[in-house]
Specification:
single chain; 336 residues; mainly alpha
Length: 336
């Protein structure tokens, strides 16, 4: 956010005018904000505890944790999936928690890449380039399929450390679960252009009338989006070139994500290329690697470090696995 503020101010002074924001930019911001409100509502519902409580406590628990994290991330974003699954994992009586949390972080990044609402950068790329949803999913499917297959194999290998010391508990869904589940479906249909954009305002109207606490969302993320829209528009005025060679935008976006994260990378490079496929691959692969690659990685690290205090060992383990996944994903990109 600080980089976005400085970049927007300096570039605006240099070009001599304030940045231009298109109607599509503002629509994306509103849809993203409503998606964050919906996730907030689901966090205050019984949905996530019900998912946790109904997880069977059998020997396949580590594998279940990884798979459920991937599935959740496809619909409620990778960040929200880890906000639910990592604390739950750390409360379990199970060995190899460090490896399970690392696998969950990788699973959230890989699983969320499949859908337009899986993470903020996907939502932006999908909306900015007006891609058909099936075309979008088909393009990134090899990355997701190979990545999740590897994680399933890894999750299966972690089962040896399981201890059956936690009893399953049943939690039943409440009104908020159904209300915000409906709103999630509504936003998905708006994103897919099946329903008109103005219907997304129903979410805002509901929380204003019923529960304004749900408006406490990640405004720093929204501000970063807004300012990066302006910063990248100013750069278009300063730099008149396009990345035309296949593969170049992939490497620029994948490596840039390792420095400034994949969300601002998508916002920045989308202004300079019409090659949405390589950009999508780049920011998806760029979410792997180091902690900075994705906010989801930092969420997993924060929970684990605060709960266990084992920072050094977790960091080197995370980066060994992360860069191994990064390298394999680059190979998949070139094979595809």
């Amino acid at each position: 956010m600080i980089l976005a503020v400085l970049g927007t101010i300096v570039s605006s002074i240099y070009v001599g005018h304030l940045p231009h924001f298109s109607a599509n930019d503002l629509k994306i911001l509103f849809i993203l904000s409503m998606l964050l409100v919906i996730v907030r509502g689901l966090e205050h519902s019984a949905l996530f505890p019900a998912i946790e409580g109904r997880l069977s406590q059998g020997k396949w628990l580590p594998l279940q944790l990884i798979v459920i994290t991937a599935i959740l991330s496809m619909f409620v974003t990778n960040d929200a999936a880890l906000l639910v699954m990592v604390p739950f994992t750390l409360n379990l009586s199970v060995s190899h928690k460090n490896w399970i949390v690392i696998a969950e972080a990788m699973s959230a990044n890989i699983g969320s890449a499949l859908t337009p609402i899986g993470n903020p950068q996907n939502l932006y790329i999908y909306s900015h380039y007006h891609v058909h949803v099936l075309q979008f999913m088909a393009e990134i499917l090899p990355f997701v399929a190979v990545g999740l297959f590897g994680l399933v194999v890894w999750g299966w290998s972690l089962n040896s450390g399981f201890k059956n010391a936690t009893k399953a508990r049943k939690v039943f869904l409440d009104r908020n679960s159904y209300v915000f589940g409906f709103f999630l479906l509504l936003i998905m249909l708006v994103v897919l252009h099946i329903l008109p954009f103005y219907l997304s305002a129903l979410v805002l109207i509901y929380v204003l009338l019923v529960d304004r606490r749900l408006l406490k969302i990640d405004y720093s993320l929204l501000l970063t989006f807004f300012l990066f829209f302006g910063f990248s528009n100013n750069l278009v005025s300063l730099i008149d070139f396009r990345f035309v060679r296949p593969g170049r935008i992939f490497w620029f976006s994948a490596l840039s994500s390792q420095v400034i994260s994949n969300v601002p990378t998508a916002l920045l490079f989308a202004k300079f290329t019409g090659n949405w496929r390589d950009l999508l691959w780049g920011v998806s692969v760029g979410g792997l690697g180091n902690l900075v690659g994705s906010l989801a990685n930092l969420i997993a690290y924060r929970f684990y470090s605060q709960r266990t205090g084992k920072v050094t060992s977790f960091l080197w383990q995370f980066h060994v696995v992360g860069y191994l996944a990064f390298g394999i994903s680059c190979l998949i990109y070139y094979l595809v």
